[in-house]
């Protein structure tokens, strides 16, 4: 009986680990070369007409808008849940309070766009260009791996892990190998976020929480720390300024960080 129970526990533990390993991995078994992820079912003119006629925020949920030039459009409060925006251009667009949950925006251009208080939960934003974009107050549990977010504004944003609903695994902001040079994370919540190999040189981290974050190999040189919570953050092989070592006193693997 004991052996049977132990086997149950091992299987359950394996299932949990598998779930965590595949969290936010929506790309598995998806053909990104199919028309659904490469073509658009509307033109910019049709989108503009829709926005003009609508008396409320636009509903573009589940629509294929891949490759469209939507630069500068006002999409405030728009419902883009599950929309496909791969390689779309939204530079300077206004997406405040927009819903981008489960949206696909791989390689999309959000340069200078405003996404204040927007929701990006389970969104696929790999290799997106978001330089100078404003994500202040946004809820972000998206995959920004290899994205460019230079000088982006994340003031007060919540990029932490969602510990309430883990049916899809651990949902959190994934910023693996992202360029966050000069980004503003003042008072942002990055608890348990994935920052492995991210570039955070010159980033503003005052008042931010990186508790439990995975930051192995990240570059923190020149970043600003004041009342930053780094408790339990894994900084194995991270590059930090020797003068800021004390800021990482409660981080994990400080002895394995590269102090320069």
Describe this structure in words.
Helices cover about 15% and strands about 5% of the residues. The chain has 3 helices and 4 strands. The strands form 2 sheets. It has a two-stranded parallel ribbon with strand order 1-2. Strands 3-4 form a two-stranded parallel sheet. The longest helix is centred in the first third of the chain and has 20 residues, at about 1-20.
Task: Summarize this structure briefly.
With 260 residues, the protein is low in regular secondary structure. It is 13% helix and 6% strand. It contains three helices and four strands; from the N terminus they run αααββββ.
Please specify the SSE layout and strand pairing.
Blueprint: H1 2-21, H2 35-38, H3 44-53, E1 119-124, E2 139-143, E3 239-240, E4 258-259
Characterize the main sheet. Answer: 2 strands, parallel
Order of helices and strands: HHHEEEE
| Contiguous runs where pLDDT drops below 50 for at least 5 residues | 1-23
Q: Give the overall pLDDT as a whole number.
A: 89
Q: How many DSSP-defined strands?
A: 4
Give the overall silhouette. elongated
Structural class: little secondary structure
Please estimate the helix content.
10-25%
What descriptive keywords fit this protein?
two-stranded parallel ribbon; single chain; 260 residues; elongated; two-stranded parallel sheet; little secondary structure
């Amino acid at each position: 009986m004991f052996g049977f129970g132990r086997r149950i526990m091992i299987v359950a533990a394996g299932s949990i680990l598998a779930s965590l390993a595949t969290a936010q991995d929506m790309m598995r078994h998806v053909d990104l070369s199919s028309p659904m992820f490469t073509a658009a079912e509307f033109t910019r003119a049709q989108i503009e007409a829709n926005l003009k006629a609508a008396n409320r925020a636009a509903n573009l949920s589940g629509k294929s808008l891949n490759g469209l030039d939507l630069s500068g459009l006002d999409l405030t409060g728009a419902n883009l849940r599950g929309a496909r925006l791969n390689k779309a251009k939204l530079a300077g667009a206004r997406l405040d309070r927009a819903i981008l949950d489960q949206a696909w925006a791989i390689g999309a251009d959000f340069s200078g766009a405003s996404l204040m208080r927007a929701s990006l939960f389970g969104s696929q934003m790999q290799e997106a260009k978001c330089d100078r974009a404003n994500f202040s107050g946004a809820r972000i549990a998206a995959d920004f791996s290899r994205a460019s977010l230079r000088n982006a504004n994340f003031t007060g944003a919540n990029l932490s892990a969602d510990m309430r609903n883990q049916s899809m695994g651990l949902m959190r902001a994934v910023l693996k190998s992202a360029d966050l040079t000069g980004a503003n994370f003042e008072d942002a919540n990055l608890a348990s976020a994935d920052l492995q190999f991210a570039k955070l040189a010159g980033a503003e981290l005052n008042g931010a929480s990186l508790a439990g974050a995975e930051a192995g190999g990240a570059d923190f040189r020149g970043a600003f720390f004041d009342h930053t919570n780094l408790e339990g953050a894994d900084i194995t092989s991270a590059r930090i300024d020797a003068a800021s070592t004390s800021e990482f006193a409660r981080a994990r693997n400080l002895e394995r960080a590269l102090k320069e």
